[in-house]
UniProtKB/TrEMBL annotation:
Binding site for FMN: P28, M29, A30, Q84, K153, H183, G238, R239
Matches recorded under InterPro entries: Aldolase_TIM (IPR013785), DUS-like_FMN-bd (IPR035587), DUS_fam (IPR001269), tRNA_hU_synthase_CS (IPR018517)
Domain spans labelled DUS-like FMN-binding: 26-298
This protein's name: tRNA-dihydrouridine synthase
Keywords of this entry: Flavoprotein, FMN, Nucleotide-binding, Oxidoreductase, tRNA processing
């Protein structure tokens, strides 16, 4: 373990009027970074910030946290959890941000990166990168509405043009964003081509607010390379945190995972999904997590099939118990076909 890197990851960082204790952040992932998965992460710790999945700004003011699968939390995680919203109407985004502040979240994040058709169709997510004036109005309205940190997560844009990313970063900063998470891929590219980490340095150099780099960081070497290439202030981890929920504790605190941790993470995810969601939703949420988790194992495809065939959340733990009987061999890096 590189002690300088570990020290850096554990160094505090000011975001707006608040400070995070550690530079590793869970990236938002819809249907995945929900209350149950964040409880799995909390078994290990090692992070500075957690994220919800994206929540529709229109529905946030009316959400009931007791039944919502997106807008729900544990009290003890609120102070280090950011709620991400998507939308394109400045007043609606501002109202959602006010509810998020009133509930006690660390901050609010504006989604300017999601390129799914269902989101972009209404001008939200990455569609805002094609409309800088509207994006500016959205960030301005949210900034005016709340005192908590405002973060913007965004991509390069719709073309492979780093100058556009730099100008959007300046625009977000000018409108009052306290930090940025930058995923240097063009919007139409889901995750097929590698992200261009060299663009992260351009964004970092353009603004004074903290910039978190994101995209394809799987190993500690990847994190070290992204940080040294770009000088960014921290790293946001998506899929690897799903596959290995201890990864942030491993990198920042030297936790050493054993095969038992793989079993514990899977069984904890199944029981926390069962505790938080209705049985059908619990099973679907577990199955959304399953490919990333199964990507850890040499026979991951077979495990994924067995979990799917289990059909109900209550049948998941017995499948996992059986799978771990034979000390399943691990992959060095997650299987690409599952880790999508
Ligand atoms: C299934 C899935 C859902 C995602 N949902 C969101 C989302 O709700 N909001 C967002 O800003 N990014 C979302 N992302 C993008 C991730 O936050 C992250 O930018 C991307 O996965 C690249 O990081 P990684 O290589 O560390 O996974 C999602 C990614 C995945 C795989």
């Amino acid at each position: 373990m590189n002690t300088n890197l570990q020290e850096f990851l554990n160094s505090p960082l000011a975001i707006g009027g608040k400070t995070i204790a550690n530079r590793l952040v869970l990236a938002p992932m819809a249907g995945l970074t929900h209350i149950a998965f964040r409880e799995v992460l909390a078994l290990y710790g090692g992070y500075g910030l957690l994220y919800t999945g994206m929540a529709g700004a229109k529905s946030v003011p009316h959400e009931n946290p007791k039944v919502s699968t997106v807008f729900s939390w544990r009290e003890e995680e609120l102070e280090h959890t950011v709620c991400q919203i998507f939308g394109s109407v400045p007043e609606t985004m501002a109202q959602a941000a006010q509810r998020i502040e009133a509930e006690g979240f660390f901050g609010v994040d504006i989604n300017c990166g999601c390129s799914a058709r269902a989101i972009c169709r209404y001008g939200s997510g990455a569609a805002l990168l094609a409309k800088p004036d509207l994006a500016a109005q959205v960030v301005r309205a949210v900034r005016k509405a709340v005192n908590i940190p405002v973060i913007v997560k965004f991509r390069t844009g719709w073309k492979d043009d780093p100058a556009h990313a730099v100008s959007m970063a300046r625009l977000f900063r000018d409108e009052g964003a306290d930090a940025l998470i930058f995923h240097p891929r063009v919007a139409p590219d889901l995750r097929t081509r590698p992200p261009k980490w060299e663009y992260i340095g351009l964004v970092k150099d353009a603004v004074e607010v903290p910039v978190f780099g994101n995209g394809n960081v799987i190993s500690l070497d990847d994190a070290a390379k992204m940080l040294s290439m770009s000088g960014c202030d921290g790293v946001a981890l998506g899929r690897i945190a799903l596959a290995q929920p201890w990864i942030m504790a491993q990198w920042s605190q030297g936790m050493a995972p054993a095969l038992d941790d793989y079993k514990t993470a899977g069984t904890a995810m199944a029981s926390f999904c069962a505790k938080r969601f209705e049985p059908r939703t619990a099973f679907l949420r577990f199955m959304k997590f399953s490919p990333y988790y199964c990507a850890n194992f040499q026979f991951g495809h077979a495990l994924h099939k067995r979990l799917f065939a289990a059909k109900e959340i209550d049948n998941i733990i017995p499948v996992l118990e059986d799978f771990f009987q034979s000390a399943p061999p691990l992959n060095k890096r997650p299987t690409p076909g599952l880790f999508v």
